[in-house]
Structure of TrkA domain protein:
Amino acid sequence: MVDVRRVKLPGVGVLHTFVTDDGGKVGVIAHRSGHSDLITFADDEDGPDGTKVSLRLSEDEAHTLAELLGGTQITESLTALDQIPGLSIDWFTVDYEDYIAGQQLGNPGDRGIVGLTVVAVVRGESANPAPAADFKVFPGDTLVVAGSPEKVAKAFNFYRTGEKHLKTPVDAPPGA
């Protein structure tokens, strides 16, 4: 676990810093105005030859960098989960013509898909984890689901067409 130090900068925001395993020093200044500065810096111990780098990021750029840095770990975790026999994790992006667009999410079990879980609904830049049955789904939303490959395919078919039964059996998870 990395030890992060937090220092309030009056009138500016908050400085978060940590030391890397190889002795490098990294900091992020989260300004009250919304932008952030990603910095590496030298202490007095490093002397005049210490390298200093500063990069100003807009709020969107800071979020993107955080997603890129954290995304690898999330992707690796999901890939490991997806290797569990009988478990499929997949994403369904809702289009305007899909049956589920404009509808409440509902309970998959009430729709004949027992054993499927809607893990989250991603809308824009925010996630809605474990959404309730009355959560309304809109075009552009991405549904993150987990279940057996057959149940995921059945759910995707329902989300797209409103039909509760697949016309053809499924041998592989959607997107495989």
In short: The longest strand covers residues 13-19. The longest helix spans residues 59-82. Residues 5-80 form one domain.
